[in-house]
User: What shape does this take?
Amino acid sequence: MVSNNAKEVFIQGITQDGRTFRPSDWAERLAGVMSPFRPGGASPGSHLSYSPWCIPTTLGGVKCVVVHSDLRDYDVMAWDFVMNFARDNGLQLAEACLLPDPPPAK
Assistant: This one.
């Protein structure tokens, strides 16, 4: 379960039993499906870029999708879809919060 105060949730491409999740492009596919869910809503051409609320990435050699809590605030059914995808496929979740950028070096 994901707590309500987490700002970001990392859906990791590792199953609960430690196997690598397949297919290898699962993160890009999931983020592609979520591309219309973005600030200001879908617009012409928005399907050509990922939503800032659902971004595929690789961390430590593991495919992940970073899901921002703003997605939950914008459309709870979209949030549930992503979280249910992780649960249904037995994927590991990690919560995170945004840290402020460090001050510029002087």
Remarks:
- The domain at 8-96 is CATH 3.30.70.2340 (Alpha-Beta Plaits).
- Helices lie at 26-33, 70-74, 76-88.
